[in-house]
Each structure stands twice: as structure tokens, then as C-alpha cells.
Design goal:
Layout lengths: L1 H4 L2 H26 L4 H11 L5 E3 H7 L4 H13 L3 E6 L6 E5 L1 H21 L6 H18 L17 E3 L2
Antiparallel strand pairs: 1-3, 2-3, 2-4
Helix pairs in contact: 2-6, 4-5
Protein name: MarR family transcriptional regulator
InterPro entries: HTH_MarR-typ, MarR/SlyA-like, WH-like_DNA-bd_sf, WH_DNA-bd_sf
Pfam families: MarR_2
Length: about 170
């Protein structure tokens, strides 16, 4: 049993969990200062980094750790708070887009400086540029293996404002 517990695979995943827990705690405190949860920040960030600041609801679910119904609840809450809007898809009545509003972009702009400071201090700043590039490559390969839908909708063209009807 001792040899199995000394396996570098156990060490690798243990270190990964420890890093994740430490960063998550630091991020959560900072998000709370801005009235956001970690999930709401993730949704805002994913949408803001997507073409036209929008994603189909199904693609947003695929890119996050949320189920389709979980995304619906988060988007409902964020829509009530004025951070997101929904837009119906003109070509598929079954689909709708979640879109960041001006208020959502403003909230993201308020959160990002502190978020980037935390990332720099506790994560990327611990690595030289070559190590960071290697880590990013490794994380993308692992992400693509364990979560192949993580980039769903981000590389496909999304309709422009003229091609969707607004529901907000």
C-alpha cells in the first residue's frame, strides 16, 4: 500500500487539488466584494470572451460545470440583476443566447483588476514565461481530454445583433 501512495500520480492530483482550493478561496473572497459568486464570474467571463459577448445557452452549459437547468437558473438570476440578457435565436426557436449587458461588462471591469492581481501573485507570477507556456499547453491537453465540450460555441460564428431578436 505504501508504494501506491507514493505514486507520483497521487502527488500530481493532490497538488492540483491543493492549488485549486487555495486559489478558489482567494477568488471567492474577492468576488464577494463585488457581489458575485464564482459561477457568476465564470459566466460573465466566458460570455465576455465569446464572439459578440454571447453564447447559446447549451454552449454555455457545456463550457461550465453547470447542467442545462443550472445555467438557466444562473442566467435567470443574472438577468434579474441586469448583468445578462437573453436573446432568442432567429433561426432556431428552441435556442436562445445569453448576452452580457453593459452593466455586466461594467461589473466585470470592476472585478478584473483585483482578479488579475490574485492570479499574478499566487499563480502565474510563480512561473517563468517558459514554465507558464508549458503549463498552459499541458492544461489545454488535459482539459480537452476530460472536458471536450469546454470550448463549445466559442469557435463557431454567432449571429450578430441584427440576426437575433432581443428579449430584454
Amino acid at each position: 500500500m505504501k508504494n501506491e501512495l507514493d505514486d507520483p500520480r497521487i502527488t500530481a492530483i493532490g497538488l492540483f487539488y491543493e492549488v485549486h482550493a487555495g486559489l478558489t478561496a482567494r477568488f471567492a473572497a474577492q468576488f464577494e466584494e463585488h457581489g458575485l459568486s464564482a459561477v457568476e464570474f465564470e459566466v460573465l467571463t466566458r460570455l465576455a470572451r465569446s464572439p459578440n459577448n454571447q453564447l447559446r445557452m447549451t454552449d454555455l452549459a457545456a463550457q461550465t460545470s453547470l447542467s442545462t437547468s443550472g445555467v438557466t437558473r444562473v442566467v435567470d438570476r443574472m438577468e434579474r440583476d441586469g448583468l445578462l440578457a437573453r436573446r432568442a435565436c432567429a433561426t432556431d426557436r428552441r435556442s436562445s443566447f445569453a448576452v452580457v449587458t453593459a452593466a455586466g461588462m461594467q461589473r466585470l471591469k470592476e472585478v478584473l483588476p483585483g482578479h488579475l492581481r490574485i492570479i499574478e501573485e499566487w499563480f502565474t507570477g510563480q512561473l517563468d514565461p517558459e514554465s507558464l507556456a508549458t503549463l498552459l499547453d499541458a492544461l489545454r491537453r488535459i482539459r480537452d481530454a476530460v472536458h471536450p465540450c469546454a470550448t463549445a460555441g466559442s469557435s463557431t460564428a454567432t449571429p450578430t445583433d441584427d440576426e437575433v431578436s432581443t428579449s430584454a
